[in-house]
Design a protein that fits this description.
Oligomer: single chain
Strand order of the largest sheet: 2-1-3-4
Radius of gyration: 25 Å
Structural class: alpha/beta
Helix content: 40-55%
CATH class of one domain: Alpha Beta
CATH topology of one domain: Aspartate Aminotransferase, domain 2
Mean pLDDT: 93
Low-confidence stretches: none
Distance between the termini: 51 Å
Bound molecules: pyridoxal-5'-phosphate
């Protein structure tokens, strides 16, 4: 749609200088991207960026703007060919997600409206999140009152989950008074196979990594629940306060699923919060 020039001083705007050229570039990007995705299988899973390409990412910030088409050409030359390869059907390096056509379209639509989610009841965006959370609750068989939120990934979910565990189980107002007023060292338990994001969360939340007990695994690479109980007992005897057990529904290296029912029983007996890392295995568990 064409805009009519207005009277008065030129308006400052983030609009493209040339809508027609920008639209043509958008069409080109979509066409190139469909070709790229459709022919993914014909290329190697990944290739390393050579030194001369890496060198293009150093140097001073540009003083002047670049033309959008130039920026896109630079992306085609120096960025797109050197990806991790996780979209490729023969990529076996863990579970780092994948690029899909609908995912790409969804990101485009979200970015083009600068979509935010906040507590504004008039926006449809928020209802999408609530609906997806309700769908997950039903698919996973959680009870009707169960709630949740969508996060950027599992590391942030673990951080939020362990913050809830800490704040609920501490026995005082951690949010107001901070960790230094804890009477006892709060301890957290997970298996040796649990993801590194558990340790990161424990560090960020002020437990300290020494408060994370990495429990050995059995021959199926599940947490050894007998060893877990012993460690909790020893910690209590040493004056610690066990607050949370992390079970893994699908470990990163082998997709082993901890015995979640037994862990739930131990949590009930020990008055610990139960956090399950279901990064990619929750659906299978
Ligand atoms: C079991 C498990 N937990 C947590 C994570 C971290 O997830 P994200 O990369 O989404 O932060 C991963 C990633 O592979 C994982 O396999």
């Amino acid at each position: 749609m064409k805009t009519t020039p207005k009277e008065g001083p030129a308006e400052e705007t983030l609009d493209p200088e040339d809508w027609a050229a920008m639209r043509a570039l958008g069409h080109r990007i979509v066409d190139d991207t469909m070709d790229y995705m459709e022919t993914l299988r014909d290329r190697p899973v990944w290739q390393h960026a050579p030194p001369e390409v890496k060198a293009r990412f150093s140097g001073p910030a540009p003083a002047d703007p670049s033309a959008p088409a130039e920026v896109y050409n630079e992306y085609l030359r120096s960025v797109r060919p050197y990806q991790l390869g996780n979209s490729h059907p023969r990529y076996w390096g863990w579970v780092t997600g994948c690029g899909t056509v609908m995912g790409a379209y969804a990101e485009f639509l979200a970015a083009s409206t600068d979509a935010v989610s906040g507590s504004f009841s008039f926006m449809s965006n928020n209802y999408i999140e609530m609906q997806v959370v309700d769908w997950c609750r039903d698919l996973l068989g959680f009870p009707p009152g169960a709630s949740g939120l969508i996060t950027s990934g599992c590391s942030s979910s673990t951080l939020i989950g362990l913050a809830v565990a800490r704040n609920t189980m501490a026995g005082y107002d951690v949010r107001a008074d901070g960790m230094h007023t804890a009477g006892k060292q709060m301890t957290v338990y997970c298996s040796e196979e649990a993801h590194s994001s558990v340790q990161k969360a424990v560090e960020l939340l002020g437990f300290g990594s020494n408060a994370l007990r990495r429990i050995p695994v059995n021959e199926s690479l599940q947490i050894d629940t007998a060893a877990l109980k012993k460690t909790i007992a020893a910690d209590r005897a040493a004056g610690c306060h066990p607050v949370c057990i992390v079970g893994v529904a699908g470990t990163t290296n082998t997709a082993a699923i901890d015995d979640l029912n037994t862990l739930a029983d131990i949590c009930a007996e020990e008055r610990c919060w139960f956090h399950v890392d279901g990064a990619f295995g929750a659906w299978a568990a």
